[in-house]
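Final report, closing paragraph on structural work. Over the funding period we assembled a curated collection of sequence-structure pairs, and we close with a single example.
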Amino acid sequence: MKFSELITKLHSASQPHMLMYIDIRSDCELADVNILASGQSDVQAGTLYFADAGQLTPDTVLPTNLLYYGTLPPELADRLTNSAMIDRGEFAVLFQTVKELLSYQQSDQQLYTQVLYMLCNGAELDRVLTKMTDVTGDLFVVIDSTGKLVAKTKNFYVDYPLWMRSIEQGYCSDILMEYIEDRRRKNEYSLSDKPFTLFCEHMQRYLLCTRIVYDNFMMGYVIIVSKTGMFSAAEQQIIPLLCRYARRRAERGHGAPHEAGQAELSGAEMSGDHPAGLL
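Its predicted structure, as stored:
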């Protein structure tokens, strides 16, 4: 996560933090967070430091990334690279927030790597989706354009009978497909693969949906179901992998593109082929 991205996240939090005199001269990646001690002589480039400006001296070795409260000595202010002033009362909560954000980032990177490894080694899609649920707590489902269930999180459960009946029978109900068709109509049958978010009043859940498009045909959807609507960076990055995985299988079909693509997409779970060309 870059310093600028962190600042944006802190600003856009549900309870925005007060950040003043933001100065970004050389944006860089952050991997850790620490407190800058008075008289400290060694600092790490990828670490964000917190400091009480009143304890710093003109001889202080400044880190590349600094959040501080109080008034900096003029000699230090000119030597800052990436910095922002914070409210003293938010010191502790901001430190913990940043620590959690960087921790989540590492978890996201690990999940992305694990999913990529599983897909490249031909893991069943159900296993991949279940792994993602174990880490994120969200539910995942893949359907083709006819409403047939292609893959889902193991033990998928939502408190909405219509969805559960669809999951149990392996096919979306007419009501759900009509809703999907209505959304497609309102979007002029877009073939964009850009994820879009819906809110289901019945389930009280947020849905992050992404179209699987093959040869100008809409082949299906990857859907993430979340209680909060806060979809992680890993989920955003993994969705294109899942769509590409399905498209690669569709490309191996024969006959009419849309018929072959649907057959291959629906049969993705059965095939043990290595997903060549996934990357």
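The first strand starts at residue 19 and ends at 24. The first helix runs from residue 3 to 11. We thank the funder for supporting this effort.
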